[in-house]
Amino acid sequence: MNTTLIVTQILTGVVGGLVYVLLALGLTLIFGLMRVVNFAHGAFYMLGAYTAVVVVGLTGSFWIALVVVPIVVGAGGLAVERGLIRPLYGRSDYDPLLLTFGLSFVLVELVKVVFGKLGKPFSAPPVLADALVLGSLYFPKYLAFMGLAAIVVVVALWLFLQRTDLGLTIRAGTQDSIMVRALGVDFDRTRAIVFALGIALGGLAGALNAPFAGVNPDMGLQILIFAFVTVVVGGLGSYWGAVAGGLLIGVVYSLTSLFFPQFAQVAVFSLMALVLLVRPTGLLGSGG
Amino acid sequence: MPRLAEKESVYTMMRSNVPRWLAASVCLGLAACQPAAPPPSGGGLAPTSAPAAVAPAATTPPKPATTTGNGSGPIKIGLVTGLSGAYAGLAQGQQRGGELAIQEIGAVLGRPLQLIARDDKLDPNEAAKQTQELVQTEQVDVLTGCVSAATTLAVNEVAKRAKVLYLGTCQTNALNDGAKDWSDYSFHMALTPWMNNQMVLPWITQTLGKKIYIFAADYAWGSDNIASITAWLTKQGLAPLGQSKAPLGTKDFTTFIPQIRAAAPDVTIVVNAGDDQANFLKQAAQFGLSKETKLYSPVVDVPFDKQNVQQNIVDHYGGANFYFQIADQLPSAKKFVDAYQKKFNEMPAAYGSYQYDALKVWAAAVEKAGSLDPAKVEAALEGMTFDYSSGQSVIRKCDHQMIHPVHIMKGRAETQGDSGFRDLVISIAADEKYERTCAELGLGNRG
Questions:
Q1: Segment B300-333, tens digit of pLDDT
Q2: Is residue A198 in a domain?
Q3: Nearest C-alpha of chain B: how many angstroms from A165?
Q4: Which residue of A lies nearest to B15 if distances are taken between CA atoms?
């Protein structure tokens, strides 16, 4: 077992983990402000990938797709919030959970009707198609790009939440939505924006991961579970908890699959169980 | 009231019970989001130890009178396959192959043919139910179809009890095994994983290299392939360099590819199909693995290649019972491809060819027997030779196994139109020496 192999595995684990981070941040933002466990998040991730397929088909450019996808999918999120989620505010926490659960099936089936049940071909842009060679280390250029892009998004989102008025309202609403409303903030608007933002992150994750993990109607299922695990491990509501959780899960998965491939998934869920037992609020969640 | 200035907890309005609640959601998701489909099979894709078929034994009626061939009206052919679910594309091709065969055959014993297709949803229970209904209500004269090993075992079981002929068009090592699921009434009209590998390994080791790494989807079919490849290599004094398995439905092979690279094999045998195969090839290209090792897959097919981008298929080798580009070399394939394309306006795939052959040879056997009586048709089918779409084949008498050629296909550098993906490298002629002997299968007494 040489060092190069272990380093490569850690790097791939980090990049895989960053995709979970993008999804988990969307989930945690939406849950934090709206108390909605968004089971349709995986479906929007999948929609992001299919939107990218369509945009690349129309424009021939993957880069345009990366800009268009979050806008289009985020707009879809906005419509879902207005039409489906808003009527459920004030009702049981389980109602939006069940609604989004159902919605995910509807979206997946719709995509199957429109695009067919089999996957669609989709590849990295030619400039990123091969591997970086650093001595004995081989690393796909596209994975390196994906990792960097995800880091940029994570930092930009953090700055948005910290430095802007809207970010302040979101943070305040997460703390105490009643007080925020009492202060005269248009909270409905804030909720709609947060939902759209979270969904746009999911869509972007799908488009980013598509050249690597492929495009098919069921692509959102497994990754959604990993995103939930990330949220639980990191600590629900904690921004950097989601980041730490995603990276940890990515690396645990990749290293376990190096040494004991059949236990890779088990290791991730065992990690979640362990965190829940020892630190129920997650790695960086508040003490509660 | 929480204080807004408290940075550490600023994103949370968590009550302490919420993480557990969310964990419960994860579990709900896990239960709901399991990949629903059992493995595909056919072209040697089938597991030997697929989940045991559940066939309601007690309710199976005796053979309906019409199967004796004394009836009038159309002869009914029941096709049970996975028309919905993950392999719907493959099953549709299979159904179309059947439809084309029926159109060309026209009539058997002076009676027209009717194909009744049923969806098994890739579920053994559903397959048993649909088969039961085909036998009881529709009173079909013969059963056929399948893309999943699990469902073929279920159909086999019902057919066996109802004493109706079954032409299985996907294969498991178990169906022609005397100790396992053997039935007098079943014929195995697809390559077994065992035969599929034994046929190509001499060519692989001579042409591509002797240092072999096996990478497989982690389920029975993958293990089956590993076992049969390892058995052949061991017999030659060549151990595989290494092996690893990824769960069925893996999207991200990044954690496996560096290990294969580290082993530095001449050839990597990639045992997977569909999305898994498309994604593996895509990522192998991105890691540069495709340039360092020859890649070979025991099964390649048009629907899989359509899901990929040509640049990822370049120089990928694969075995196929049928691939439309063999039509350049093989007159029977040319005839089949032309007719199929004319009827359906698309290129046929491997399952369509299996189904087409199965019904054609069955019709020939019924005419030869002069009757639909299963025992007489069985006798006529045994030892029958044919070449309808994919090369000279024979049905071995002792285990009803179709002995069939394998065509080794190599990914083209450039596509020609929508579906010009591969070139034929070599066709390996059918020979029963590649299959386990009937003595080994516990069927020596049927010799």
A1: 998 888 888 888 888 999 999 999 999 989 999 9
A2: yes
A3: 14
A4: A288
